[in-house]
Amino acid sequence: MLAVEVVDLVKTYGRARAVDGLSFEVPAGKVTALLGPNGAGKTTTVEICEGFRRADAGTARVLGADPRDPRLRPRVGVMLQSGGMYPGAKADEMLRLVAAHHAHPLDPDALLARVGLVGAPARTPFRRLSGGQKQLLSLAMAVVGRPELVFLDEPTAGLDVRARHDTWDLVEQLRSAGVTVVLTTHAMDEAEKLADQVVIINRGRVVAAGAPIELKGGGADGELRFRAPGRLDLGQLLTALPVGSRAVERAGGHYIVSGTVDAAFVAAVMAWCANNGVPATDVRVEQRSLEDVFVDLTGSELTP
């Protein structure tokens, strides 16, 4: 069963196509992470699925209905940023107001305690909360109504380590309760830990989708990483390695050489460095990461 189905979605702003024929599916009861560089179209896509924007072409179905169908409101939770909040309202007042619009909400006081907004923060006007506290309140407001589907926009942005891990625990509890979660995030470790499915969007299109382990396994068997002076002749290095190997230089003289990384592969790379007077340091063998997949597909780092 699908909680969200997006087919050939298009959204333009003037001459720019923010979303360009984008299609993906979100299975019910799972956590799906949407990843993409800034300007990739993921925020516009999510806003269409939330019913806040109208697509120019294509379709989006949420819980089997048009996203703008008012009957979806009690079934869908949306994590808002600063928009939609009453600046002078206290945190506990805001949460109780949202809870009052649902038939069987979670207990607001228990939920405030669950996200760490107890005592003074609960009685603090929204405008005076810290950035992290605003995030936690927005998260609580998204889930207080016991939604079947919840959209979380950068749920751990601005949080300290403890609050971040508590938020992860809450997302995992939502999944265990059968709630579908769609989250956008700039944190690769967050996507790897939480997501059953990752959808990578670039220039308004889906460039990859699947479980994190599937995406990571779709390329090299492993990677040899090392640091060395910048601008090495990687073409020359590849002539010393098996056909199909790849080499890239990241910022700061950080090199990643991928392929079937066995003992002979490592020896060949180190021999090339020695023969060419390259002082390689911090040498290590790793499995391909989700961040590596992202960079390969989009050509950019995922930065907030």
Tally of domains: 2
Largest sheet: 6 strands, mixed
CATH architecture of the largest domain, please?
A: 3-Layer(aba) Sandwich
Distance separating the two termini:
32 Å
Fraction of residues in β-strands: 25-35%
The CATH topology of the largest domain corresponds to Rossmann fold
* Quantity of strands, as a count: 13
Radius of gyration: 23 Å
Q: Which geometry do the CA atoms define? A: elongated
Encode the helix/strand succession as letters: EEEHEEHHHEHEHEEHEHEEHEH
CATH class of the largest domain: Alpha Beta
Strand order of the largest sheet: 5-6-7-3-8-9
The average pLDDT score comes to: 91
Helical content stands at: 25-40%
InterPro entries: AAA+_ATPase, ABC_transporter-like_ATP-bd, ABC_transporter-like_CS, ABC_transporter_ATP-binding, P-loop_NTPase
Main location: membrane
Keywords: Antibiotic resistance, ATP-binding, Cell membrane, Membrane, Nucleotide-binding, Translocase, Transport
Protein name: ABC transporter
